[in-house]
Amino acid sequence: MLKLRDSFFFLPILCFCFVFIVDGSVHEYNGEKFVGKGNAFVVHGGSEGIYSSFADPYNVTATIGDSYIRFEKVTFRRPKEAANFSSKAIQAVVFEVEDRDSIGGSAYGGQRAVCCTADLAKLGVCLEGEVIYRPSTENPNWPKVFGISFNGDDEVATLRSRSIKITKTGMYNLYFIHCDVNLKDLTVEGKTIWKNPNGYLPGRMAPLMNFYGFMSLAFVILGIFWFSQYARFWREIFPLQNCITLVITLGMLEMALWYFDYAEFNESGIRPVGITMWAISFGTIKRTVSWIIILMVSMGYGVVRPTLGGLTSKVIMLGATFFLASEVLEVVENVGAVSDLSGKARLFLVLPVAILDAFFILWIFTSLSATLNKLQARRMTVKLDIYRKFTNALAVAVIVSVGWICYEV
What we know:
CATH class of the largest domain: Mainly Alpha
Oligomer: single chain
Shape: elongated
Number of domains: 2
C-alpha cells in the first residue's frame, strides 16, 4: 500500500503534469482526433459563457469592448494514405446553446443526424455530406458554419484566420465536424481565442475577479482587527488562537493571489501557473487547518481535555488525506482549458473530497455530543452554554451548505 509520505512525494509531480495543459480562454488543439458521433465525426473545440460586445457608436475603443471567438492557425491533417481520396468539407460550427436544436435534422421524422443524408438532400434541405443547420429564429445570421476542403492530394488544410463577433450574451459552443469516413483519422491543431468585452475571463468567471478583490479587502480589515487584539493580549494567547491567526493569514494570501490570478488571466487569456498554484495551495491548507480547528474545539481540546491523546495521529491522518484530495481537485479544476474537464472526471475527483467533508462533519458532531455531556456532568454552565451556541451555529452552517449544493445541482 502507498504510504502517506509517498503520496506527498507524488503530489508535486501530479500538479507539475497539469501545468503543461494550461490554456484558459485560449483553447489549443494539439493533434486531437475526430470522434464518431452518429453519422458525423466531431472534435469539441470549446464551450464558454460570453457577454455581448459593448455598443460603441464612435468606435473609440476599437476592440476593447468587443466580444469574439478568434480562429488562429487552425490546421487539419490527414494521413498520407487518405490523401489519395477526394474529401468532403471539414466545417467549424459555432452556436449559442439556445440554438442547439438548429443543428442536425431527420428525414420523415426518423433518427436525427448531424450530417446531411441522401434522403435529406433529395428533399432539398441540405447538401449531402455537409452539416445540417437552420438559421436561428432570433438571429438569422446564426449559427456560424464555415469550412475548408483538402486541395488535391494535400495532407494539410488550414482554416482561414477569422474572428466571430458576439452580439448576444449566452453560452457558446464550438465543434469541428466532418462527414467523410475516409477522414476518420483526421486531426486538428491550432487554437481559438475566446474574449469578453472586459477581457479574456470566461463569462462564468468574470464576476469572481471583483469578488476576490472585495474579499481581499475584507480579510485585510479582519486581519488588522485580529492582529491588534493578538498584540494586545499576547500573554494570554491559547494554542488554538495561534491556529486561527494562521487561518486568517492564509485567507489574506489566498484571496490576494486569486485576485491577481484572475486579473492576469483577464489581461492575457492565459492562466498564470505560478500564482494559480500558490493560491490553490494556500486555500487548501486554510480549509484543512479550519476543519482541524473545528474538530479540536468539538473534542473539547483546552476545555475538558488538555491534549488529544491517542486521537492526535488520527486527526493528522484525516487532515493530510483531505489536503491531498482537495489539492488534486483544485489543480484539475483551475489549471487547464475552461471546458476540458468532463462531468465523469470531475465526479471522480469531487467524490473523495465530499466523503471526507462528510466524515469531518460526522466526527465533529459526535465529538460535540460527547463534550456537551461532559460539560453537563461537570456542571460547567457557562462553557456548556457557549458550546450549545457553537453546536447550533455549526448545524445552521451545514444545513445552509447542503441547501446551496442542492440548489446548484
